[in-house]
Specification:
The protein is mainly α. It contains 18 helices and no strands. The longest helix has about 30 residues. The chain is globular.
Length: about 375
Amino acid sequence: MALAWLSLGYANLVRGVAHPGVEYRPWAFRSHSYSDILALSGDRYLGGGRPVPYLEDPIEYPVVLGLALFLPALLPGGQWAHFTASVLFLAFCLAAAIEVLRRMPGASPWWLAGTPALAYYGALNWDLLPVALLLGALFAHERGWPGRSGSLAALGASAKLWPLALLPPVAADLGREGRLGGLARFGLAFAGVTLAANLPFALLAPANWAHFFSFNAGRAAENSVWEVFRLRDPAALNALTFALLAAAVALAARGARNARPGCRTRAVRLGTALVLVAWVATNKVWSPQYALYAFAAGALVAAPAWLFAALAVVSVVDYHLAFEVRAERGVFWFFDGWYYGEEMVRTAVYGTFVAFLLRELRRTRVGAAGATS
């Protein structure tokens, strides 16, 4: 099912190779067929050049994603080969993520495999890579492999920052009395892999390597609910969203720390899902493919079917409003209200998801009545 959704998305998006260069983005928005993979590879490699990421080319993503963008450009065959190789790699990541979920008792892999968001967003960006690494890191933690868990978490965070969501509950779980050795192995592996992936670029081209951080720090509200409230100042938005993230982190760590023995695994999953969903929902920048992280979170905690249905509907509507309706700049004013309304609905759905996670996390704590493990 998952690969069928992804194949459907590929069949739609690959049409873009016939519209290279400056023509691509206007065509893609009009044709319901936009992918960052095609847009960014066209910007950089369409003329045959292959600038080395960060050393010669500042990229607005962390280093692992920058390499995922660059390496397919070494293949012959132009944009078609680049895009096809990228999607095959993402298909492998998707299959790995679902296999990991199948091996995690109590998870619901259909939450990820069955969502139509895969057809829209599976090949829009490279998010299936950090999703797979996040799930792999949690799987390793549950198997008692803290070194592998820290290494996979570091690779995930070096692709996109979202896999950092697992750090608070995992660290709280490993920090229990008698498990400090596991926490040390996790931390050392995380630090070592992070340094190995980032330090060469940071030393050789510090400004280009830091472009991801400076670029995002200076961004204002984009396609997020903060647009509705006319919050424009990047510094104020950074402070506000960081405070909300810190609250989610504290609740997740506390929940994992206070969970009853039979509920510790579920508490770590719930805490990870809580940080992830709250973070993407309140982030100042929203991209519709972030829905994939919500479906991965729902799969981890086996969230109810009604919540899956609500997220599926919102993720599909979000695509059309974000990438088609708002691309029609001539009638932008007319659709502003529509899109702002959809931002509120989307945030309400994600807020409902957060409330569900908080309720379930509360049920895992010591002394809670009616909890399940």
